[in-house]
Amino acid sequence: MLNRYFKYPGVLQRMQLGPLRGVIDTVADDFERAGYTYLSAKRYLSVIASFSRYALKSGCVRIRAIDRGLVERFLRRSSLSCSAAHNARSALGHVLRHLGREARAACLSASEQRDAALLARFETYLRDVRGLEAKSREELLRAARRTISWYRQAKPHQSLARFSAQDVLAYAFYATHRSTSHRTRSAAMSHLRNFLRYLHWSAICRENYARYVPRVPIWPMAGIPDYLPWDDVRRVIGSIDVSDPVGKRDRALLMLVATTGMRNAEIRRLELGDIRWREGEVHLRQTKNHRDRVVPLLPEASSALSDYLLHGRPQTPERRIFLCHHPPVRALRISGTVSAIVRRRLARIGIRPARAGTHLLRHSLATQMVRQERPVKEVADLLGHQHIDTTAVYVKVALPQLAMVALPFPGGAA
Predict the structure, then answer these.
(1) What per-residue string of b and e applies to 262-272 under the rule 16 or more CB within 10 Å gives b?
(2) In degrees, to the nearest 5, what angle opens at C-alpha 361 toward C-alphas 228 and 267?
(3) Which among 27, 86, 24 has a CA at the least distance from the CA of 55?
(4) Which of 84, 51, 50 is nearest to 70 (CA)?
(5) Rounded CA gap, 13 and 237, in Å?
(6) Is the four-CA dihedral 367, 368, 374, 377 of positive or negative sign?
(7) From CA 289, how far away is CA 299, in angstroms rounded?
C-alpha cells in the first residue's frame, strides 16, 4: 500500500526503517479504507516514517518499546513548527491506537476470546436474524458486554451455560440500581431480555431465562418533552456565520431538522437523490419504523441547502449530503457528531440545555405546530410517528389550549 503514495525505491526503503517497518503498510491501508485524501495520507505516513527512524536512533528497536513518552519527546523537538507538531500528533495517534488494538488482541485470555466470539455471533444474530439497525445493535452489544462482565466477576470460572434465575434477579438488581431514571431501568431490562433470549436460541442456556427479568413500568404521558421556544430556534439558526463551508453545512442541517423534524439517523442518511427540488419535498428512506416518508422542503430550508451544496460541500463522490469537513472527508456516521453540532451552535448564543441534539429541535417543531392549533394527525405524519398516541404528549405543553378546556374548580364560581 505504501507504493500508492511513494514511487521511488530509495524513498520506500527509507520509509520502512525503524521499529514501525512492520506496521506502516497496514496503517497506510487503514488510511485508504478510512477515506483520507491522498495528500493527507501521504503527509501522515511521512511523519510516521520519520518517527520510526527517530525511535531507531533513540535505541528503540522493538515495537513494544514504543510508548507515549517516546512520542512526546519526538513532538517536543525544536525543528517542528506548531503546525507540523499538530499534524505529527494526529498521525502518531493513529499509530498508538493501532498498536493498542493489537496489544489488546494479543493479551486476551482464552475466556475473553470466547466472550469476544460470543458477542460477534450475537451481533450477527441481531443483524441477520432480527434485522436490527446498527445503532440498535450497538446498544444491545454494549448491554450484553456489561452482563458478561458482571457474570465473570460474580461467578469466576463458570460457563454462561450455568446461568440461573437467581443470577438474572441478581444482575437485574445490580443494573437497575446503577440507572438514574425509570426509562434507563426499563431499557436495561429490555436489553437483558434480548441477550437471554439469544442464549436460549443459540442453545447456550437450556431454559429461556428472559421470563424472569422484572419489568419496569413506563408511563408514556408522565413527562413533558424538552423543547426550545420557537424564537430561540430562529435565533440559533440566524446566528450561524455562513462565510465558511462549515457554517453553511451547520445552517442547512439545523434548518432541515427544525422545519421537517428529521431524526438524527435520517439527517445522516440523507443523500443527494433524496431531494426533490421541483416538488419541494425530501424523501426519507430507512426511517425508524422502516417506512419511507416524504416531508416538505420549505423555501428557506431549500435556499440554505442549495447554498451548502453549491458553495460549501467538499468535492467528493460520496452521495450522503452532510459530510465531515476535516480529513478524512466522509459522511457523518455517528449520531454524537450531529448532536455536537447542535450543542455547539446553541452554546454560542448562551443556550445550554441538559440534552441538546436533533430531538430537541424536533420537539420544538412539534410543540410549535400544536400551539398553532395544527391537527395532531398532521404533526404525527410529519414526525413519522406510527401511533398518534406518541404525538399526543406534545399537547401537554400547549397551555393556552389546555386552559380553554379546563374544568371549573369544585365549589368555585360557575
Answers:
(1) bbbbbbbbbee
(2) 170
(3) 24
(4) 51
(5) 53
(6) negative
(7) 28
Helix (H) or strand (E) holding 281: strand 281-284
Write the CB contacts of 304 (distance below 8 Å, at least 6 apart in sequence): 248, 251, 252, 255, 256
Residues 6+ apart with CB under 8 A from 394: 225, 363, 366, 367, 369, 370, 376, 379
Spatial distance between the Cα atoms of 175 and 188, rounded to a whole number of angstroms: 7
Q: Whole-angstrom Cα distance, residue 379 to residue 384?
A: 8
In angstroms, the CA 117 to CA 228 distance is 45
Q: Which residues are catalytic?
A: 263, 288, 359, 362, 385, 394
Q: How far apart are CA 72 and CA 76, in angstroms?
A: 6
Question: Which residue pairs from 379-388 have beta carbons closer than 8 angstroms and sit at least 24 positions apart in sequence?
Answer: 381/293, 382/260, 382/261, 382/295, 383/261, 384/261, 384/263, 384/284, 384/287, 384/288, 384/289, 384/291, 384/293, 386/289, 386/291
164 by DSSP, 3-state: which? coil
DSSP string, 316-328: -S--BSSEESSSS
For the chain, 414 residues long, give each residue's pLDDT as a single digit of tens. Answer: 677 777 778 877 888 888 887 778 887 887 776 667 778 788 888 888 888 888 888 888 777 777 778 878 887 775 667 777 777 777 777 777 766 655 444 445 667 778 888 999 999 999 999 988 777 888 899 999 999 999 988 888 888 888 899 999 999 999 888 877 777 888 899 999 999 999 999 999 999 999 999 988 776 666 677 888 999 999 999 999 999 999 999 999 999 999 998 999 899 999 999 999 999 999 998 777 677 889 999 999 999 999 999 999 988 888 999 998 877 788 888 888 899 999 999 999 999 888 788 889 988 998 888 888 888 888 888 888 877 777 777 666 665 555 554 555 565 554
* Residue from 365, 246, 204 nearest 295 by CA: 365
